[in-house]
Amino acid sequence: MKHGLLWIARALGLFALCSWLTRRELRILCYHGIWDGPGHYGNYLFMSPGKFRSRLAFLQDWGARVLPLPVALERLAQGRLPARAVVITIDDGWASTVAHMVPALEQAGFPATLYVTSYYAHNQRPVLNVALAYALSRWAAGERDSTLLPLPGLGQLNCPAGDAIALHRATDQVIEHASTLADDDARQAFLCSVISATGLAQDPVWGGPAFRLASRDQLREASAKGIDLQLHTHRHRTTCNGTSCLAQELADNRSWLTGVGEGPFEHFCYPSGQYQASDWEVLRRQGIESATTTEIGLCRRGENPYALPRILDGESLSELELEAELSGFLTMLRRISRR
Ligand SMILES: [Zn+2]
Question: Which keywords, in A-to-Z order, does the entry hold (predicted)?
């Protein structure tokens, strides 16, 4: 249904019209990571290496003018943005990003900003919440006799096959429990016990880099290839025990990135896209120039620099849907419906 309507809108020239109407607006694309092994880990924003390469080819065919983030923001503010101006941003800094996305970007000659969260990049252990979510989703998808999963410290988790809500609830419960454990050693030991309880100990995915962020050396290499490393907090959070820890997180993140990326580190992406207006004063005091969100849309001149919308791309987004976003057609529809 949606595809049919988009196809008709495109055939009627509405994509081209919206592209012209929004020609002075900026398109900031948001990517996350790559999965290239068996199964599917990460969220819906992850994609296969082939899909990412085809996206870059599509951007070239579409006539995108891919600019570095600071240049694009400066030209947006001055009203000097070329038509079809695009910025490529990638969140988190997964090992798979450096292995697959960076060479593809280099080959295409496209600049990109990589927002690095540094805690797991530093300790080089599996990112706990993503690894736990993967283990539970594989267990829920597998054939088994019981819907109950016994886990240390949590008793029996009920997760019937095909029940997405129960899976979501169980995953939240497991991640929440892990966060209460004393330290990182305890949390990693808990992950091992979950892997064992879900019967996934033989899954080859655990031996690879799937759940790891790129190391300091890998990120340094990416930076040397022209990837702009920027801020995403140290521990992928802006609050701790209900109060803001954004200033400390930014300071830790910036300190870790110093000597890894070129700097200056003055562009930021909210972890999980979550922010509040009170964050803006903290960002201003920390000398941050821009902050991107996971709200969807194009950036207009005069947009709040600390609440920049993006276009979220992922495996399930078709080329037609991406074009509908890039052209500004869907942004225009949202603006009309808001009125
Ligand atoms: Zn993130």
Answer: Signal
